[in-house]
Design a protein that fits this description.
The protein is mostly beta strands. The protein has a single domain, classed as SH3 type barrels. 11% of the residues lie in helices and 37% in strands. Strands 1, 2, 3, 4, 5, 6 and 7 form a seven-stranded antiparallel β-sheet that branches. It is globular.
């Protein structure tokens, strides 16, 4: 797994408004030696764009998303690698740079 790749993930229920269940997520971690991975979940709920810090990811051949999706950067979370399933694709370098910028502010 590399930063910028999108995988299907089985997010465990954590309560509150945290995303749970099977959904795509973007890897934002470079260290491959840890048993967990840092992920940003995606949603197709366009109304999430009303919150600050959301990033719209449009479907492209390289990410294989079927619908426009919103990266929920504020829900960055660590998940055991056993919950990470198949790879969907990769987001563009421009979108990954947007994510890094939001995470650093």
């Amino acid at each position: 797994m590399n930063a910028g790749e999108i995988f299907w993930v089985e997010f465990p229920a954590r309560g509150g408004r945290a995303q749970a269940g099977r959904r795509p997520a973007i890897v934002v971690q470079k260290d491959k030696t840890l048993p967990t991975v840092l992920l940003i979940p995606l949603t197709t709920q366009q109304d999430a764009l009303r919150f600050a810090g959301m990033i719209l990811i449009e479907p492209e051949a390289t990410n294989t998303l079927r619908q426009p999706s919103i990266a929920l950067v504020f829900q960055l979370t660590a998940v055991d690698k056993n919950f990470v399933k198949s790879k969907l694709g990769t987001i563009s370098d421009d979108k990954m740079n947007e994510i890094w910028a939001l995470l650093m502010n």
